[in-house]
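Thread: "does anyone have the structure for this chain?"

Original post by V.I.:
We have the sequence but no experimental structure in hand. Need at least a predicted one for the grant figures.
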Amino acid sequence: MRETNSPAMPDEEGDDDLLEFLDSPEHADANDAHLVHPWRVLIVDDDGDVHKATELAMQGLLVEGLPLSFLHATSAAEARQVLACEPDLAVVLLDVVMESEDAGLQLVRYIREELKLGAVRIVLRTGQPGYAPEIETVQAYDINDYKTKSELTRTRLYTVLTAAIRSYRQICALEANRRGLELIVDASTELSRLRGLHRFAEGVVTQLCAMLGILPEGLVCAQVGVDNDAEVRVIAAAGQYSGMINSPLSAVQIKTVRERLQQCLEQRQNIYDEGTCLYFGMSNGRPMAAWVDVGRDLSETDQQLLRAFCSNISVGFENVVLYGQLLDQAYNDQLLHLPNRNRFVELLDKNLKDPADVTLALIDIDDFSDINDAFGHHFGDQVLRAVVLRLGEALGLNTAMARVGADTFGLLGPSEHVSADNIQRVFLEPFSVSGERLQLSATTGLVRLTESAAVGSELLLDAQIALKQAKSQHRGSSQYFSSAMGTDARERFKLLKGLRAGFEENRLFVVYQPQVRLSDAKAIGAEALLRWRTEEGNFVPPDQFIPLAEKSGLIISIGEFVLRTSCHQLKRMLDLGHEDFRMCVNVSLAQFRHPGFMEVLTSALRDTGVNGRNLELEITESMAMEDTELVMHILADIKHCGVSVAIDDFGTGFSSLSHLRQLDVDRLKIDRAFVREAQTSSAGSTIAQMVINLGRGLNLTVIAEGIETEEQRQQLLELGCHEGQGYLFARPMQADQLERWMEQPAALG
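Reply from O.Q.:
Generated one for you, tokens below.
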């Protein structure tokens, strides 16, 4: 193979980058031909005179402003060798008949199908047209022109080459654009995996240099504020600039680099002279600029691709910044600039290597909501800052601190620092906040990690258990976690979880215990009682699961279920002819406090068609005394519906006569403990007598529960009690049993 140029020019290794020569000027002076890359044309012909004639005809001519450079092969086999090592050929002038009649045509297939060279233009030339008819050849082979050698005069040959080279140039431009867009997509895909701003910016430098075919050498700067005087810092760098990360732009020693980056940020546009500087606009007013030393002038195609890259990557920068903000908000408290609960749990899960001599503490500021109510939330925020400052000063740098709740802080550190005594000392002296001296106290739950089997976030639960235990003692106290404490709490949690499942799977049901008139044991009604049978068939006592239901809020749904079920059964009893039958249903304070309670009550009466006079709601004495105003208000609404009210467990609390007189109730129920004691001691009998006398004095019906013997019934009758319920008369029973029991004649036992 030999290569010649027209006009003649020395051999040189030229840059293979298509983008560079595609942007060359349309018209170039022939004297400057050695400064540009020529169009390379391969002549494949077994006639040496054809090679010479072609070169001679094209000597001194420019095509699209560039000279021609010729490569030569005298056979199809030799041409294959040339094509294998010369990737940037523009045109192949190919003889059809050489070592065989179809050697040229087979070479066409080789170029298109095996080498996959779609851009190179192929012009078939033949001196024997009969061997390859023109129409059939054009139809069967991917060629661009077909000429007989006699046709190719100087002018015709120039026209053919010009048309072929223009086509080649357009195809190359399209291919360059396609490759550039692929690079942009690949770069964006790769960068989308980088979430940190520094890593993303570093990736931008790397991908940018890869697109331009240069070594990763450059840096990215970010303007850290929206003011004109805000300091510009380097957030990513590569190559010789890698040591500049986190440095101010003023520290960059190369003046041109420094000035171009500053100019790019100020002008808010890309700059392509004396190095390439790209601008990335940001909606937060903190734009970024990237500088890379390309080492050459960029073509218009390059610049178009870079503009697309910048637009795409600007969105990526926006997403990374947004992700960083979301991450910050997800893991850090914005007010106190402390880790939040999520970050603290992560610390417990991942970073705790050695639990020896390490203690976890949860500190809850007592009555903080009262401070907010009295002084406002802004003052409350200042109080929290003051507490954080003092805790930090007292517990040292080796202690991790986080805000895990509105007024609750988590501490994790050496046991000698994180101790009950040290924490209490923090709150001994008053805090000075906005000119106010404020005495605070805090309740603390602590966990020595060596004394807990829990790991990670479960440790926080242990600390919460200890904190709750401390609060149950008195405010301002401290409590260390113990395994027994944890077992009790987890058993309660397990029980609550089972209760939720039991309610959802209809394993909770209502039974009814008849209530009778003591004088003749005639049934006058029944009390609805809730029961829970587990999946294994075991019964859980109500005094175990009812308090859990109340604390968890599940009692609202369960209470509505009991009320509606009881009203349906009440309607059934009335329809069976028991006209004066009374159904008693227990109601908790949580139900009373729920804003939808009265709607639940009225809809239950309406849906079942029950008259309110046949329904009685029972509330406990302690409940009536805990929130007297609320209870009195709800009682008035209940009475308006015609429903009667009883006070259950009367005598176990500390209600005053004045409170009792204010409550609009119909019945007092004597607790079973007094019924039992009335038979065994004079003091018990005296208490029972006092409750009965009090009820009768207020014109209330008195009913006693837990009556198990005839002697108890007789004694209560003598004391003046009106009604009773207990095993002496009937045990709690299901609805069908109650209906059969009511058909039996009144009988004791």
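V.I.: this helps a lot. Confidence is low (pLDDT under 50) at residues 7-35.
O.Q.: and The CA atoms of residues 341 and 405 lie 7 Å apart.
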